[in-house]
């Protein structure tokens, strides 16, 4: 499915390219083989479409797997990088880099993702600490409300920074809405190392996330060294989110929608949920990007518009189901007490 | 097995558990009881290593728990939490498999063949094999609790900590779950330490109990030693009665509802309805009753008391069923009605009403003497189950101890025998003085309100009043029956 999505997405566009050519170009770019390809096709696909599709896939995979991890860890099906405010936090980091022109001396290339990751971690810690101060049990509503409020606050901070700088940063407004367009191979290679590290760190936490989704205390009783594992999971999910935001801006709801659908289709066991979210997250965002640039072509919609259009109703649906489940649960408990 | 030494701890600044010290040995079923907020759950969290200790140590197999890492601790101690709600619906076998976490290694923690075997065995043991693929949300509360017990057992622990394992379970599931646990302590030498809300269940299943109050140990020992009336009343701040369990050698506790102690119930002879067929005495509130009645013998609580007249030659295979059909006919609720039978004419009854000192007493006697017996020669009469002849009812307004009930029976019986002697009733078969008839019945009933009466022997205030009233009423009833015959 992922492969089909890649090929379909690469093939679609103003210039039609035959299927065999597409495959050849892909092989030429991602493997050591170099089959003979048409140079026009090579530049359209190889330099424009392929990096865009791969980037969409990597970003989708990153956001979806971190969403699944956040949800298991916080025992909260509504948690995702966007609703927790982590994406906005990462954007602040990215905008700060552009605004102040910060650059780390040796690793100037990775300044942007590193700053995004740092601000993502800080935002996440702030949201969790603040929500816990309000409500010891870290209930769904408190956590998400805190995340969303902080997210819109940080959004305003970014707008303020943009307004202060005048024209220079106007260009990043479009980027903030979330887009994988016109990024090129640089961005793909920038994201890959963070993606590999973050995903691997999460993929080996399946059984731990299962236990922690029963509550941290229960996980401890089952033998999980929760402090260590929690730190690793939060760090890995922040790395993925931060790096994804650094290259593509804030794309909302991917981390919410994809794990939700995967859970419905394949069950809640995190040992399967994490890899499935990864693959389907990639497919989802590639297709969303495909839709965003073809639906009203030649005009391109920001990809974030598509994901929000799909994601917000699903968010509402999950909230509704949780509410209903809990009220029937409460009724049942009431009956037992009578 | 598990040793808790001088442990204190709590949350933030406030100590919840203070200097708690006890040890539980292998295969023991150990119960922790105490009122809400006394620190039971906090103590458990410290024992399972979830909450740090402020001072003291918890050791398992002579190693303190901080010498274990989480995984090896989870292989020693498992906890059955109170029913929990998860937003993610795992299937039964996924849930049980999580209990094997502590045995899994490698990056991806794939279950080994051994893990699969253990889960299989435990699913079978808990009767969950059939529903293994169901999501746990589709199970009943009892089944779900079994799944979590299976999860804890798949940790193959030496010690199992249970926090109110029977919470939210209905009666039959409580029994089933606790029977299973008890069995494991006997067969697998599993050590069980459990918090209980229900004192009766705790004393039925536990080898020893720990009673906590305000974070400290109030008392520890066998259920008999811990379940002391004064001790429990002090700790729980309510009136609690402790009785012997009718069928098992464990104490049984009853909480006295506050609204009863202030209510008073009045006894008066106006509540009496007499017809040729029966005497019916109806009170507004149930009376605690100790009797040898046909329906309602032993201790019980009754509101309606019937003395039913039957013919001397009446025979019936199941007199209690016969009487229950009568209750139905008369519109008396079956479970609130006590009944005796007599061949004597009930209209010849005699009554005495005494209201003095701190109690009110009502005595009703129906008597016939045709089958009078000298107790020394009873065997010569042969046993014939005929309807009762002298039926003695004693109603007391007061709060009688069980001892007083039995002494009242003795005193009333002595008074009856004295009446037989003074009326010169003889055993027709032997010609000796009769001590009663072959089928007498007695009833002592009390409102259980007002003054506490510990004794009712013949020299006590209540006893002597009962003796005098029963004597007089019996004499009168015997005389009435003679007159009745003459008429």
Automatic annotation (TrEMBL), chain B:
Keyword Cell inner membrane (UniProt): no
GO molecular function: ATP binding; ATP hydrolysis activity
Keywords: ATP-binding, Nucleotide-binding, Translocase, Transport
InterPro entries for this protein: AAA+_ATPase, ABC_transporter-like_ATP-bd, AdoCbi_amidolase, P-loop_NTPase
Pfam family, one: ABC_tran
PROSITE patterns noted in UniProt: ABC_TRANSPORTER_2 (PS50893)
CDD domains per the UniProt record, alphabetical: ABC_Iron-Siderophores_B12_Hemin
Presence of the UniProt keyword Translocase in the record: yes
Positions of the ABC transporter domain: 2-239
PANTHER family: HEMIN IMPORT ATP-BINDING PROTEIN HMUV
Protein name: ABC transporter ATP-binding protein YvrA
